[in-house]
Design goal:
This protein is of the alpha/beta class. Helices cover 33% and strands 21% of the residues. The chain has 13 helices and 20 strands. Helix 3 packs across helix 4. The structure holds guanosine-5'-diphosphate, 6-O-phosphoryl inosine monophosphate and magnesium ion. The site of magnesium ion has 6 residues, from loops.
């Protein structure tokens, strides 16, 4: 092992949690670098399913330092609920969890603004998770944000919260005809959170760079996916952070020279939650079938996920923008009973053929997928123990994906459990 970034190569929910959990065995540190509790990362251990939103998925292994990096936005209320949830699983969190002092804090007004914006501008709504992620990052980049270190300093916190509320309350009242927020209530509530969070707070850049000097292994846990990245995704139908591999450096304070490898996690088909273009989306019958076989319901909001054929155009884009050398293909088992499979190799829009992902949102909305068809394998793969035992057509399907996207498949997942993982 070395220092590895794990990123989602589609629209999120690729199974990053499972892959992080598997690779955590050989890691010393696992660090989240962007996003917030919009993420829902599932790890299945035996009969138990554990869903993590903010705490890195390495927490289920003993003695792994799990860091919430500076690039993450933290809702303290959600964090405390999650800490208690993890503790209730008899997991030692106190000695393993660390939180960057530079991470930005989500406030109640961010969550309300997130929902109000979606309601007011419903024509262009994004279908956010409603967790206040976008408004919190907006404040960060507008330089009004309030960080963990700020809520630990009463005087600074008071100043910053006062000036934020002055502006925000005017917006709530004038633009949204909504209620104003009380300074006293938020101030006292967040000072309490600050005291509970304080023992976990650290300088994550120093911690990680010391670990690198000591030849420790670090896993960088991406949230969301490449097509939800604010720069490289289906803008504006994206999240508000850099979920691509580059975000790992900015979001942790580790330089790019220390990253050894980037692995993309890819579902054997495609899903997306929320609004936005999705060229290979299934028709309703196939949608129902795959949604039910793949249990495609959001781990954070419970919303049904939209499902579609594997789209090599978007994954090839993910390979390029993340510099992926390797990929992990998950949920192959969900396709077990499909007689034929389609793979999108290009888009057709007007008279042109697009082999590279187009940035023009109109081209994406109207893109006609160009498919290649392959025979399915019509066999249960969930008990396969070795890659060579996979049905021939399943291996052919994987080889096809590998050739189309230009990265090597190193891991194949055929079920949510730890032992349903094949190393190629
Ligand atoms: P993440 O956000 O990328 O971590 O993915 P989610 O946890 O939101 O969604 C992935 C879902 O697929 C979870 O319910 C996992 O338990 C499940 N899963 C992961 N890998 C496999 C697999 O190979 N096969 C099946 N059937 N389910 C899987
Ligand atoms: P994980 O880490 C799938 C989607 C939302 C919406 C858009 C913006 O589990 O893969 P936001 O609340 O971030 O402002 O919403 O992004 N989205 C996700 N979709 N998996 C996720 O995380 C997601 N996090 C956000 O549905 O379309
Ligand atoms: Mg998820």
């Amino acid at each position: 092992m070395s220092n590895i970034v794990i990123v989602g190569a589609q629209w999120g929910d690729e199974g990053k949690g499972k892959i992080i959990d598997i690779l955590s065995k050989d890691a010393d540190y696992v660090v989240r670098y962007q996003g917030g509790n919009n993420a829902g990362h599932t790890v299945v251990v035996g009969t138990e399913e554990i869903i993590l939103h903010l705490i890195p998925s390495g927490i289920l292994h003993k003695n792994k330092v799990c860091i919430i990096g500076n690039g993450v936005v933290i809702d303290p209320e959600a964090l405390l609920v999650e800490i208690e949830y993890v503790k209730s699983k008899k997991i030692d969190i106190n000695s393993n969890l660390r939180i960057s002092e530079e991470a930005h804090v989500i406030f109640p007004y961010h969550k309300v603004l997130d929902k109000l914006r979606e309601e007011k501008f419903s024509q262009t709504k994004i279908g956010t998770t409603g967790r206040g992620i976008g408004p919190c990052y907006t404040d960060k980049f507008a330089r009004n944000g309030i960080r963990i270190v700020d809520i630990l300093n009463k005087r600074i916190f008071k100043q910053k919260l006062k000036s934020n509320l002055e502006e925000k309350n005017a917006i709530f009242i004038k633009v949204y005809k909504a209620k104003r927020f009380s300074f006293d209530k938020i101030y006292s509530e967040y000072l309490k959170y600050a005291q509970i969070i304080k023992p976990y707070v650290c300088n994550s850049s120093v911690l990680l760079n010391d670990a690198i000097k000591n030849k420790k292994n670090i896993l960088f846990e991406g949230a969301q996916g490449t097509l939800l990245d604010v720069d490289h995704g289906t803008y504006p139908f994206v999240t508000s952070s850099n979920s691509t591999a580059g975000g790992a450096c900015a979001g942790t304070g580790v330089g790019p020279t220390h990253i050894d490898k980037v692995i993309g996690v890819v579902k054997a088909y495609t899903t997306r939650v929320g609004e936005g273009p999705f060229p290979t989306e299934f028709s309703s019958q196939l949608m129902k079938k795959i949604r039910s076989r793949g249990k495609e319901f959001g781990a954070t909001t419970g919303r049904p996920r939209r499902c579609g054929w594997f789209d090599a155009v978007i994954v090839k884009h993910a390979v390029r923008v993340n510099g992926l050398e390797a990929i992990a293909v998950t949920k192959l088992d969900v396709l077990d009973m499909m007689p034929t499979l389609k793979v999108c190799v290009a888009y057709r829009y007007k008279a042109a053929i697009y082999k590279d992902f187009p940035a023009d949102i109109e081209a994406l909305w109207k893109a006609q997928p160009v498919y290649e068809e392959m025979p399915g394998w019509m066999e249960d793969t969930t008990a396969v123990k070795d890659y060579s035992q996979l049905p021939l057509n399943a291996r052919k399907y994987l080889k096809k994906l590998e050739a189309l996207v230009g990265a090597k498949i190193e891991i194949v997942s055929i079920g949510s459990e730890r032992n349903q993982t094949l190393f190629v």
